[in-house]
Amino acid sequence: MGKTAIVTGGGSGLGFATATKFCKNGIKTYIVGMNEEQTKEACLELGKNAVPVIFDLTNLEGIPAMIQEIATDGAIDILVNNAGINMKKEFIDVTDEEFFKIIQLNVLSIFAVSREVVKVMKEHSGGCIVNISSMASQYGIPKVIAYTASKGAIEAMTRAMAVDLAKYGVRVNCVAPGFIKTKMSEKAFSDEPQRRDKVLDRTPMGILGTPCDIADAVYFYANNESKFVTGTILPVDGGNSIGF
User: Fold this and answer.
1) How high is the pLDDT of residue 140?
2) Straight-line distance from the first to the last Cα atom of the chain, in angstroms, rounded to the nearest whole number
3) 3 CB contacts (<8 Å, ≥6 apart)?
4) Measuring CA to CA, which of 10, 25, 128, 222 is 20 to 30 A from 89?
5) Domains within the chain, CATH numbers bracketed
6) pLDDT band per the 50, 70, 90 thresholds, residue 1
7) CA distances (Å), 100 to each of 52, 133, 154, in order?
8) 167 in helix, strand or coil?
9) Spatial distance between the Cα atoms of 237 and 219, rounded to a whole number of angstroms
10) Is 147 a catalytic residue?
11) Where in the sequence is the signal peptide annotated (predicted)?
12) Distance between CA 36 and CA 52 in Å, rounded?
C-alpha cells in the first residue's frame, strides 16, 4: 500500500506545493483547510490522491475526532504542520487577544494535531512529522512579535517531540523557509522595494526561493532517505540566515 499524509493549510502557498509533491509521488494526501471552496478547488486540481478535510484548527476540542475520522482509512504515515497565520503590527499595539489568536493556531493546534496523529502512528510502526518554521525564528524581524514567538516555539517543540517520540518510531523535523516568492511576498515587496533589496543583499545566493524548494525539503524528511534524521531544523533560505 502507498503512504498517507496530512498537510494542514495545504490549499495554498507552501502547503499546496507540498501537497502537489506528495500527490505526484503517489501519496494519498488529506488537505486540512478552513476555507471550503479553496480547499476543495485545490484537491480538484491535485487529482485523485488529494482528499479535502474542511476544519478550523482553532477548534482544539474537535481535533481528536477529526484525526480519528481520517484514521478510519488506516495508517497515517506523514504529518506536515504547515497551517499558520501572521500579523504585522507595532509591538506596543498588539493586544493579548491578537497574540493569543496566533499562538492558538500556530502552536496549540500543532501540538494537538501531532498528539492525536502520534496515537495513530504508534499503532502502525511509526511515521514522520514535519513542522514548518520561519526565518523569523532565526533573527529579529520588526512588527511580528506573536508570529516570531510562535515559530520559535515550533522549533523548540520539534526537538522535544523528536526525543519523546523516537521510541514510537516517529521522526520529527522542521523546515525553516527563508524569503519565498509567492503572491503575498511579491505584493509586500512591490509595496516596499527597499525591503526586497535588503533581503536579496543579505542572501548569498541573491534570489528568492520558490514554494517547490520548500516542498522538496519536506519530501526529503518524509521519505526513507532521511530515516536516521530527527530533531533537526533545516533552513531553506539561499543562505539568508547566515548572510551578512
Assistant:
1) 87
2) 48
3) 26, 27, 28, 77, 78
4) 10
5) 4-178+210-242 (3.40.50.720)
6) low
7) 27, 18, 15
8) helix
9) 16
10) yes
11) none
12) 8
Q: Write down the catalytic residue from 30, 147, 219, 221.
A: 147
Of 148, 145, 170, 141, the C-alpha closest to 158 is 170
pTM above 0.90, yes or no: yes
Q: What are phi and psi of 173, to 5 degrees?
A: -135, 175
- For 166-209, how does the pLDDT look when each residue is reduced to its tens digit (9 = 90+)? 999 999 999 999 999 987 677 777 778 888 888 899 999 999 99
And the C-alpha cell for 204? 548569498
- SS3 assignment, position 215: helix
pLDDT of residue 41: 98
Contact 104, 58 (CB under 8 A): yes
Nearest to 171 by CA among 107, 235, 225: 225
**With 70 as the cut, is the pLDDT of residue 17 above it?**
yes
C-alpha span between 107 and 7 (Å, rounded): 16
pLDDT digits (tens, 9 = 90+) for 44-85: 999 999 999 999 999 999 999 999 999 998 999 999 999 999
pLDDT digits (tens, 9 = 90+) for 21-47: 999 999 999 999 999 999 999 999 999
Q: Three cell numbers at 118?
A: 502520534
Burial of residue 8, with CB atoms counted within 10 A of its CB: 0-12 exposed, 13-18 middle, 19 or more buried: buried
Enclosing H/E stretch for 78: strand 78-81
Largest CA distance in the chain: 53
The CA distance from 69 to 64, in Å, is 9
For 39, 69, 111, 127, the CA distances from 108, given in Å and listed in that order, are 22, 20, 5, 21
